[in-house]
Amino acid sequence: MRGVTGNRARKATRNALAAFSGVLAALAALAFAELASAAVRPEASPVTAVGSAAIDQAPTPVKDWAIRTFGEDDKLVLQLGIVAVLTVFALVAGVLAQRFRWLGTAGVLAFGLVGAGAALSRPNSGPTDALPSLAGALVGAVALHLLIEAVRRAPWLASDEQRTPDDEAESDLPGTDAPPPGGTPRDRDGTAFDRRGFVAVATATAAVSAGAGLLGRHLNAGTGAEAAASREAVRLPAPRSAAPTIPRGAELAVRGVAPFTTPNRDFYRVDTALVVPKVNADTWRLRIHGKGVRRELELDFQDLLSRGLVERDITMCCVSNQVGGPYVSSARWLGVPLAELLREAGVRPPSKGGPADQLVSKSVDGMTIGTPVETVMDGRDAMLAVGMNGEPLPFVNGFPVRMLVPGLYGYVSACKWLEELELTTFEDTDVYWVKRDWAQRAPVKTQSRIDVPEPLATLKPGTVRVAGVAWAQHRGIDRVEVRVDEGPWQEARLAAEHTKDTWRQWVYEWPARPGRHRLEVRATDGDGELQTGERVGTVPDGATGRHSVVVNVD
User: Fold this and answer.
1) pLDDT, tens digit, for every residue of 295-308?
2) How does strand 310-317 pair with strand 328-337?
3) Under a CB-based contact definition with an 8 Å cutoff, are residues 320 and 540 in contact?
């Protein structure tokens, strides 16, 4: 019985150490892949490549759920999920490798092939993008072999049938499981590792892996450092056309309401980039070409800065924004009028005989966004922005250059990290989001939001300030109304209008009485269109419905 129990205990220990070996091998694979990606590009590292491929392949409802559930942390959650799956895979591979060495090694190599395939599937990828995953897999396979060999050859883990009299003697030493000072005969022959031998191999693997991973991150950060230096060197010129002065009454100074101008650090972010591209402004280029282009243009960053820039306050909104959601922000932008560049290239809108009705903007990370040419050239302040709230664009917001078109949702207008503009047609070309069931054209819908009081807030009876923001870019907001408990609609006081391309704050003085109450808001845009109460989701062209909150008054 004692022998059976001992065998079971040693088998469990072997399995645990084998599983741990699998995790260490996976750590080595990821670390050396990170190091290898520094010689290629950061986007080629396995976690980033697999995560980006997962984003591309995920069904639209899954993407929408992730944004709704995790917000701007959706990318972090995805990366943690990939690491968790890899950890489980590594645990299994380690246990299998203990009995079938080739199977564990094949598993590690197969995971490397998955990473390589994901890297090669990315837009703008090249053959070298596969190298980090393949190099990491090779290192991981070697590490797993060495670690499993250490586990297999340890005499203190041998079964009763495999153990020698010397092994049995050493296991009976009081107070310790370690071999005696002289070691076993097999120890002296160098044919077996002792307990400390496995620890040494495992420690060395972890230490070397950590060093390689840190070095890889440091080298990848060096690439970003060059881009950061180029951004620091940018001196934005004064605009030829400054933004109108924001009227004094545009900010109601109600605590809890979104500020009229969103600070850069608080501006919403929704995109598919797991790694924020760090583009060097000194080497950046923009190409304009395609149907109806009589003269192709290729511009560098200084070319843009030397042109007459315009400055405008523009509110932007993401199509993934739920009713009452946070993915809407406003900033002061500095950029080159986009219509002027297109006219310089000889482009005409369809209404004037131009053959192209879609402008496809392409990002350095391969994202494609399609915008109606007619809208871009209808006189609104569509621009290629280089500045945001008085400074060069932050990297996360698209440095060095991004596109934006007032009145359209971001997924059809706001390409970040821009590098190419192609004139084409909606019939000929489906861009990234259109291929994933979103609409080709998507003007921003009239929306309003209650910022204060917060949902389920407990309030005192008396006058309560119900306040928030409303937006209908390029149409403006003419009226906001509030009602309580399905009662009559009451007109709220609007802040002063700045432009039709910016949101408006509003406030309603509510005589609150004790009880549980539901507050609801609606807006009317500058075209006289009332915000609909019909509740629909974000797909295919933006959510509709009225925002409401429930509060308690006692």
Assistant:
1) 999 999 999 999 99
2) antiparallel
3) no
